[in-house]
Design brief:
Chain A: It is a multi-pass membrane protein. Chain A: It comes from Paractinoplanes globisporus. Chain A: InterPro entries: ABC3_permease_C, Macrolide_Exporter_MacB. Chain A: Keywords: Cell membrane, Membrane, Transmembrane, Transmembrane helix. The complex is a heterodimer. By secondary structure, chain A is an alpha+beta fold. Chain A has four domains: 187 residues, no CATH class; 186 residues, no CATH class; 251 residues, no CATH class; 176 residues, no CATH class. In chain A, 53% of the residues lie in helices and 15% in strands. Chain A contains 23 helices and 25 strands. In chain A, the strands form six sheets. In chain A, strands 6, 7, 9, 10, 11 and 12 form a six-stranded mixed beta sheet that branches. Chain A has a six-stranded mixed β-barrel with strand order 18-19-23-20-22-21. The radius of gyration of chain A is 33 Å and the shape is elongated. By secondary structure, chain B is α/β, with parallel strands linked by helices. Chain B has one domain: Rossmann fold. Chain B contains nine helices and ten strands. A six-stranded mixed beta sheet of chain B has the order 6-7-8-3-9-10, sandwiched between helices. A four-stranded antiparallel beta sheet of chain B has the order 2-1-4-5, with helices on one face. Chain B is globular. The chains are: A alpha+beta, B alpha/beta. At the A-B interface, helix 1, helix 8 and helix 9 of A face helix 3 and helix 4 of B.
Chain lengths: 839, 281
């Protein structure tokens, strides 16, 4: 209907709440979606001159849903590369072994530690990025390197998995990375996973031919598929960012529906005479409904159009902070995403229409008689539909929370949040039912005082207004308590966990490097593990396992028949994190053994093959059960460098989690492996890229990192919720109080001072906030209990519930202040005793 | 000038229009014009059980076409309920209400709305206009709601009839109370309804504006055979009517026919109030 626009223009004030809510919602969703869509996997820059790439085959997915790749051995890789190079249209085929190398300046490691793991390359792979020598010659012998930024002849200090070394720069490249002779690179890297082709023919044709050559031993990727070659560490960073962005989108949309619905309900209730008049002069319910939809559509479109640029312009500005916070990889920028903007726009409009749908249905059936009635009695607050929806949401939420422990970890947090959202919705829908008894109870002590009486009666006849105010408070307090409570509960058990396990010892830990080199480890007297990743084929399936290289003497002890019982009584000192809190996936473990053990050598974990020819594998009971293996079972194992070996299970011991292998073998098959930490037995020896600290501090680094992320998530999500609902509370009360001008005038004419009127309105506002808080507490406790019992079921031990009182009180006080301020505004502005303008 | 000339032109098709859908007339044998609104044994009770309040008591009233009836009575006498039931805004508990020959008891809410839109006009005491719309748009509202565009000049002519042709583009907030009420009358008459219900139309106005409104209502009856039912407690307003009905406790207890003097009406009203007071004490 064409009157809609005029209606909106005339009564813009009463639509302002919807407008702001939609603007904000669309801005948040547009911004978050823009960042989310901007953060796509991208083929590394150094493959930019290679339109066709061949990667080693994938053997399935790991626990985090990332594909698990096997490696080609150096021989396999060079063989395949030679065959690929002969294809028509291919100018060169370069195997791309990668290894850890980091530059040392003044004895300190420089650059990003995690990125350094993949910074070493073979010289022939420089062509894949189109990198050329700007000066000098290609590296030819071990100890020679081509790199950017250093003139030929420079001698540089570097750190590799072996230890510190001094290399000579033979050539200066125009692209990043350390390039060493191909043979050296193959020796330093754990196998090859990518072969890049440079071509002078058609990419599709070459790809087809390459598929013929590679067969099942390689996967040919071209065009956009090349983006799957993004390093896993980058993918994980982006995954973290995506979690926050998804939460922002979900929360933004939910809060918008919530605010719009309650604003629409209130404004429709306030317009009931106007709607009645329309009905009296012949508007059918359908016409009234269509008018309300049209009005909301106008508002939503305007608001969405206002919100889009805000979101689109803010997103690129947030890219920097996201990178700094470790939520997006370095170099990330927000780009314009038409899909994100279109989606946000559509979402804003749909959300607004959904918010008005129920209200419109109800308002359109208002009797025409409403136009003639003066009485301030409201519409009945509870309808059958509201009852049904409220009870359904409550049941749905409880069922979801009760079944939480039966769900897989990946969907659990989403399901938990979904259950809580359902309960919050249920509480908001059913609020009018409990408001009357709650208010009676709360105001009972003051029922004889004038203010108390006014508040009590004023609130009891305006259940709908109270419900509208209480709903956003409910949402804010409920969310805050739920989120902080969940984190606090998990943090609590985590603290208990770690404190119980940590020995009072000193460790040598990486300092500005991704891990300790062999030199750094050998220099110390103590225990360490050399982590690697192996593929174990069993029963037709192949899966990846984290494995650890154990020094020869320890391995011998583990496999000695008599050792097992006593060993199993002293658990390893591996600080593991409880599942469910895992914000940083995939970082496994640390030193093993207990410090009391004697006479373990610092080890000679060099390249010398195990002198006593140690072989075999030790499993923990859980892994053994998973593999269906027992002592004596022979496993088919594929090392990081792509070699296959059949290894017998020497022992199944509950000493350390995972797969244990002789250290020498691990080193031989994974030349780039780095040690996470050394648990010291003797005095520390200072080496480059290492620092000494107590175990507790070392563990604390991980906990802090995780805590930092969790705090960031909490701050953003709670900030958004509080901002949103603060807006809703303010808007609802501004609207409601402004509409009660006549009532306040009557109060003043009856002899009340402005102060007394303020006291009444403030008390009403506080009462509404209190009602919302009470309901929120109920919902939060139920939801938290659901989360708690799910964690309890998973860990199989008692988990105490932690209620975040501080956060709850803080948020409630903020809501209360906003509510009081929002009611005081209109009261103070219209202090006169005369009727204020034509109504 | 042209405005005045236009009025009969608009009126004529409108009058024709009123007869056009009325197939029921064929079955009628009555020779005289049927009443615009007829209430037959209408009872309206609010609440249930012992607390039930009987607002209308088996009321039989007929409002002949082309007449101006004032309904008076002390507060609580049921005069507002009578208006609501007669206008189809509220449903009678029992009995029949027939508007322009159509019994409304069996109509759905939607059908009733459509009937109201085409056959019934309203003027309330206050809050008559949609604040967002101009005077002209307010007048055109019933036509637009019925899904038809006003003929060129139709709305202006209607506003001219109430003396506000120059205020077409003004919003209600820019008009005086009297002017607003005249726009409301124009809106109520634009569909040429079978009956116009007015609920204390002068209640919120000063004496001069009130007289102007009543003059307009009277003119509609005299010149266009408009049927008007007006609820009022003001003897001055009632004096403009052809007939005055006095209600008490949901029953018609008295009536005055023909243009009655203000004095006479006031006396009857006073008598009624006294009787009521007597019963109460």
């Amino acid at each position: 209907m064409r009157f809609a626009w005029q209606m909106v223009r005339h009564r813009f004030a009463s639509f302002a709440g919807t407008f702001v809510a939609i603007t904000l919602g669309v801005a948040v969703v547009a911004g978050a979606a823009t960042l989310y869509l901007s953060s796509r996997p991208e083929a590394p820059e150094r493959y930019s001159a290679s339109p066709v790439l061949v990667r080693s085959p994938s053997v399935g997915e790991n626990d985090y849903g990332e594909p698990e790749y096997e490696s080609w051995t150096a021989t396999e890789a060079t063989g395949l590369a030679t065959r690929l190079a002969k294809l028509p249209g291919v100018t060169a085929a370069a195997a791309d072994p990668m290894f850890y190398v980091q530059r040392l300046i003044d004895g300190r490691a420089t650059g990003d530690p995690e990125a350094a793991r993949l910074d070493g390359h073979a010289w022939s792979s420089a062509a894949l990025g189109g990198y050329r020598l700007a000066a000098g010659t290609a590296p030819d012998r071990a100890g020679e390197v081509a790199m950017a930024g250093s003139p030929p002849g420079t001698r540089i200090d570097v750190l590799t998995a072996e230890g510190p070394a001094t290399w000579t720069v033979t050539g200066t490249t125009d692209g990043p990375g350390f390039y060493v002779p191909d043979a050296v690179a193959l020796r330093m890297s754990p196998g090859v996973r990518v072969i890049g082709l440079t071509i002078d023919g058609d990419a599709a044709t070459v790809a087809t031919a390459a598929r013929g050559v590679a067969g099942s031993s390689g996967e040919v990727v071209t065009g956009g598929e090349r983006d799957s070659l993004e390093p896993a560490s980058v993918t994980r960073v982006r995954w973290l960012g995506a979690q926050l962005l998804i939460a922002l989108v979900g929360l933004g949309a939910f809060a918008a529906v919530f605010v719009v619905a309650s604003t629409c309900a209130l404004s429709a209730a306030q317009r009931r005479r106007e709607i009645g008049l329309l009905r009296a002069v012949g508007a059918t319910p359908g016409q009234v409904r269509r008018m309300m939809y049209a009005e909301t559509l106008v508002i939503a479109v305007l608001a969405a159009l206002a919100g889009l640029p805000i979101g689109a312009l803010t997103a690129p500005l947030l890219a920097g902070p996201f990178v700094d916070a470790g939520l997006e990889p370095a170099g990330f920028t927000g780009t314009v995403q038409p899909l994100a903007l279109a989606g946000a726009f559509l979402l804003g409009v749909v959300v607004a229409l959904a918010g008005v749908a129920v209200v419109a249905r109800r308002a359109s059936r208002a009797p025409a008689l409403d136009a003639l009635r003066d009485a301030a009695v409201e519409w009945r607050a509870m309808t059958l539909l509201r009852w049904i929806a409220g009870v359904a949401a409550a049941v749905g939420g409880v069922v979801l929370l009760a079944r939480l422990s039966a769900m897989s970890i990946t969907v659990r947090s989403t399901a938990g949040l979904g259950g809580a959202m359902l309960l919050l919705t249920a509480a908001a829908l059913l609020a009018p039912v409990v408001i009357v008894p709650l208010v009676r109870l709360a105001t009972w002590p003051w029922r004889r005082a004038a203010t108390g009486m006014l508040v009590r009666e004023g609130t009891l006849v305006a259940v709908r207004r109270v419900a509208s105010t209480a709903a956003p408070v409910l949402l804010t307090v409920g969310f805050t308590v739920l989120l902080t409570g969940t984190i606090a509960t998990i943090d609590n058990i985590q603290g208990v966990d770690d404190a119980a396990k940590l020995p009072a010892a000193t460790v040598v830990a990486p300092d500005g490097v991704p891990g300790l080199s062999d030199t750094a480890v050998t220099a110390q007297t103590g225990t360490s593990r050399l982590p690697t990743r192996v593929l174990i084929t069993h029963g037709g399936g192949t899966a990846g396992y984290d494995a650890a290289g154990v020094p020869a003497t320890e391995f011998a002890e583990l496999t000695a028949p008599t050792a097992s019982p006593s060993r199993s009584a002293t658990p390893g000192a591996t600080p593991s994190k409880p599942a469910g809190s895992g914000a940083t996936p995939g970082k496994s473990a640390t030193p093993g053994g207990s410090p009391g053990e004697t006479a373990r050598s610092g080890g000679t974990p060099g390249r010398t093959p195990g002198s006593d020819g140690q072989s075999g594998v030790v499993l923990d009971p859980a892994t053994a059960k998973e593999l269906g293996a027992a002592r004596g079972t022979v496993l088919e194992l594929r090392w990081a460098d792509g070699t296959d070996e059949r290894v017998p299970v020497r022992a199944v011991v509950a000493a350390e989690p995972g797969v244990l292998l002789p250290r020498e073998l691990v080193r031989r098959h994974d030349p780039a492996a780095l040690t996470d930490v050394v648990l010291l037995d003797g005095p520390p020896v200072a080496v480059a890229g290492a620092r000494v600290m107590p175990v507790r501090d070392y563990v604390q680094i991980d906990i802090d990192e995780e805590g930092r992320l969790v705090d960031l998530f909490l701050a953003v999500l709670i900030g958004l919720t509080v901002g949103y609902t603060g807006l809703a509370v303010a808007n609802t009360l501004l609207m409601a109080t402004a509409a009660r001008r006549d009532e306040f005038r009557a109060l003043r004419l009856a002899g009340a001072t402005t102060g007394q009127v303020l006291r009444v309105t403030s008390a009403e506002a506080v009462l509404a906030v209190a009602v919302g808080t009470a309901l929120a507490a109920l919902v939060a406790v139920i939801s938290l209990e659901g989360v708690r019992s799910a964690v309890e079921a998973e860990l199989d031990r008692a988990v105490p519930l932690v209620v975040p009182w501080g956060a709850a009180v803080a948020v409630t006080v903020v809501c209360g202040l906003v509510a009081v301020a929002a009611t005081a505004g209109p009261v103070l502005r219209h202090r006169g005793l005369t009727a204020g303008g034509g109504s | 000038m042209s405005v005045v000339l236009l009025i009969p032109l608009i009126l004529y098709p409108a009058l024709l229009c009123r007869r056009f859908p009325d197939g029921w007339l064929d079955g009628m044998t009555r020779a005289h014009t049927p009443p615009a609104v007829e209430l037959i044994a209408v009872t309206k009770t609010y609440g249930a059980g012992e607390q039930a309040v009987i607002a209308l008591h088996e009321l039989d009233v007929s409002f002949p076409a082309g007449t101006f009836t004032a309904v008076m009575g002390p507060s609580g006498s049921g005069k507002s309920t009578l208006l609501h039931c007669a206008a189809g805004l509220d449903r009678a508990t029992s009995g029949d209400v027939i508007i322009d020959g159509i019994p409304i008891g069996g109509l759905s809410e939607r059908a009733l709305t459509k009937l109201r839109r085409s056959r019934v006009g309203f003027v309330f005491q206050a809050f008559n206009l949609i604040g967002a719309l101009t005077a002209a748009q307010n007048v055109a509202l019933p036509l637009r709601l019925a899904g038809r565009s006003p003929a060129p000049g139709e709305v202006t002519a209607m506003l001219g009839e109430v003396g506000l042709a120059d205020r077409a583009g003004h919003r209600p907030s820019e008009l005086s109370g009297g002017q607003q009420q005249r726009v409301a009358i124009a809106r109520a008459l634009v569909t040429r309804p079978a009956v116009l219900f007015a609920d204390e139309p002068t209640g919120a106005l000063d004496a001069r504006s009130g007289r102007e409104v009543l003059r307009l209502l009277r003119a509609a009856v005299d010149h266009h055979d408009q049927t008007i039912v007006m609820v009022t407690h003001d003897p001055l307003a009632a004096a403009h009517a052809d007939r005055v009905l006095f209600l008490a406790d949901g029953r018609v207890v008295d009536s005055l026919a023909g243009p009655a003097g203000v004095q006479e009406i006031a006396v009857r009203t006073a008598r009624l109030e006294e009787a009521r007071a007597g019963v109460a004490s």
